[in-house]
């Protein structure tokens, strides 16, 4: 049986993404993103699912940096999940919002609900956790007047009441999750793919004027649509960066190999992090 690891515990949005796209495979939770990625790399699990980017808070830098600098695992899929954040409490302890002394959740979830917290819980202490699921787990086991920010699945999993629904600041909130595996043949996703994507990792040659313009031109004249361009430090010194570029196309036999060859001729280091299908969960 195929084994799938995810950022846990139960009740996280990563678990929601896994449940929505995979059938009855063995599913194992991990406390941190690096633990999940390491387990895939060591062969302890077949597939790992980790968060990559939120529409409001941007890139999950830990995921990107760990995949680039620590462990290289092919990206074999992407899952896009709508995010609905709710205020979760124990109904036997909390009956009105003014009783809440602390709010627990992941830093991204806290940031996504900034306006609600500012307007309704400005005196409550904020406590950051490793995941929204972990926040719900903490609240369920505490007799103190505390609350969690998490999804409906977390409320059901840990026996909490949804005190206030949809407290996130912006309605069109989605998170992208990467599917990682050294064994792509084991990735059997039950949803229908909504698109294709190829991700490039590009390191520019040192001190070459106009290098970034030349890189983008290699994609532009081939009429390739870029859905994301992001720079990250190489960690080799100030001012040294690599670029991660998403192309809305599967790796083909002509256009993308041509881009790779052209960039390498310019002195760039080019790695294909993955060419994969994109799945949208409604």
From TrEMBL:
Top-rank EC class of the record's enzyme: lyase
Keyword Lyase belongs to the record: yes
GO terms (BP aspect): L-phenylalanine biosynthetic process
An example molecular function term from Gene Ontology annotations: prephenate dehydratase activity
SUPFAM superfamilies attached to this UniProt entry: ACT-like (SSF55021), Periplasmic binding protein-like II (SSF53850)
Residue span, ACT domain: 200-277
Cellular component GO terms, alphabetical: cytoplasm
Span of domain Prephenate dehydratase: 3-182
Keywords attached to this entry: Amino-acid biosynthesis, Aromatic amino acid biosynthesis, Lyase, Phenylalanine biosynthesis
Pathway(s) it belongs to: Amino-acid biosynthesis; L-phenylalanine biosynthesis; phenylpyruvate from prephenate: step 1/1
This protein's record includes keyword Amino-acid biosynthesis: yes
InterPro entries per UniProt: ACT-like_dom_sf, ACT_dom, Chor_mutase/pphenate_deHydtase, Preph_deHydtase, Preph_deHydtase_CS
CDD domains in alphabetical order: ACT_CM-PDT, PBP2_Sa-PDT_like
Catalytic activity: prephenate + H(+) = 3-phenylpyruvate + CO2 + H2O
Protein EC: 4.2.1.51
A UniProt-annotated Pfam family: ACT
Feature type site, description Essential for prephenate dehydratase activity: 175
UniProt-listed NCBIfam families: PRK11898.1 (NF008865)
Protein name (record): Prephenate dehydratase
Source organism per UniProt: Oceanobacillus sojae
Gene assigned in the entry: pheA_1
